[in-house]
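We modelled the chain as a single entity of 643 amino acids. Its sequence is:
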Amino acid sequence: MSNRTGPFLWNLRQFSTLIPTSRTVRQYPLGLCRPQMAYSNWNPRNLLLNNFDNRLQAPVRCLFQNALVFKSGDDFQTKGTSSVTVLTLDRLLCPRGLSFDSKHSLISDNGLKKISFHQEASSEDVLTKETKPTPVTSRKLSQECNSLSDVLDTFSRAPKFPSSNYFSAMWTIAKRMSNEQRRFEKQLMFNHPAFHQLCGQMMREAKIMRCDHLLFGLHAVVKLGIPQNTLLVQTLLRVVQERINECDEKCLSVLSTVLETMEPCKNVDVLRAGLRILADQQVWKIERVFTLQAMMKCIGKDAPMALKRKLEMKALRELDRFSLLNSQRMFEVLAAMGHCSVVLLDECSKMVVGNIHGCPFKILISILQSCRDLRYRNLDLFKGIADYVATTFDVWKLKQVLFLLILFENLGFRHVGLMDLFMKKIVDEAGVLNVKSIVSILHVYSSLNHFHTCQTREFLEAMAGALTGCLHQLSSENLLNAVCSLCLMNRFPLAAVNQLLQKDVIGELLTSGDVERNVHKLHILAACLKLDDAPYHKAVDLALPLLPPAPLPPNAKVAEALSSLLGDGCFSKNVQLPHNYHIDFEIRMDTNRSQVLPFSDVDLVNNWEMEKLEMEDAVTFLKTEIYSTEALPTANANLQSTC
């Protein structure tokens, strides 16, 4: 054996005796690394060492590879044994207890030098205090920086892991800004030279950062307005797909919130499907009500009914833990899921009404919109909201109350006290109304057929005057809607009606926009003008197209129930009435409403038969057709008494 290899093997045998072969060393894989790890000097080739003794531990091999450089001669020197270099590799691939002693001893036996290692009891403390890099947090960044550009400047000076914290900090800062300032700062962010560098760093670190950092980063990226079709967003969505099984309850909540705001695309659809699977598997393990509601809101209206039922049952089990905010939010959650749970909504309505005072306007609007979308009617809830607004009427803006009244009209709910207060307010401030408000107010009051006992005339005069004052601003459809609403309330403003009846306006209504709806409104207008004493002869002579037959609602269940109750032939379906009205079912009963009279073919009286008869014979014929034989004597007496 040569003189060069002999000393090395001897030192290696001596060193291997210091490492216990039975010691268990835990290595953290790269994909699940801790946030305090450093990566700048890591190289996968450092793991490929083949010439060392098998008893030497893997972490020691990595340290030995970077720490020792052999020279020609009888001794070797150390290179790169500073504590920072050792920390980098030790934190990544070595157990925390094993480290180089900064003051190693050199013991000489036969002219050779030997390195002595020992394990310090307080090595973790020394590493933590002296060489551990200070981690970057989004909270610290958002406190130290005043703009999005400041965050990017901080990143460009000294990039730190994980890069998701920079995006989270920028979103935290952006939330504190006004809308105009936010738009300006976002434009500066996109033009900043370090922005593209940060995006690239985020994509490179996506697979190795913690799952919560990844999802909070994705949430911030989306909220900052980075387009969804960019490589950054699509890469993050793809990585989340690969790591979705790592999500805990907090991560699932963030993921649900992110997907809720994103447009459908391939990666979003795949993630939504994966979230549905996780929701189905882990629904009974969810502890936080907020997480449950976020998942319910995210799964979508097209989710399987079985999953919706399971989430509904979980929510019912958690009712005792619902806060006021949870109860208020449940309306929006169920509307987003497209699932009307009457029991759940009833319980939440009780909590909302019981704590209605101080409820923000935005939440009231959200609740009413959700009730409209779900077709959920709860008069106690509607009355509680309307009573609260009427009690605190002076603190609300006119536009806010109008918005609430529009939603109440959609729900078919009329609150007399609130509508009277609003009517008085309109009489005093009709001059400040814009075109959209005028049309909406007229529609609400005509649709709900509301009249005040004292101020109806003043209200109609004020609204007619406001409408006349803005005729030049009205489109043809708005003019039709406003005039039709006033006519239904028996008010016919001359100037507005004359403008509406012009040929060019009528022609525009019959050829553009929602033609079917316009035709229906024009028929209503023509009927109202016929009943009015004013000389509006033009409206009567309008050549309007016929209305299409109204779609018949599905009443199969009601028809089946009536057949079971009354029998076939005892009721008529879809009975057409004048002026394009119809009723779903007609049941004939006696005057005491104690007996149902059957329908038969003999109940159709042909006109040609009547024309052939004299008047006396026609009366006798109709009498026998209308009255039964048992009722003929009574009918004769009644007929004689009324003639």
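As a brief sanity check on the tokenised model: Strands lie at 68-69, 77-78, 105-108, 113-116, 572-577, 581-586, 588-589, 596-597. The two ends are 142 Å apart (CA to CA).
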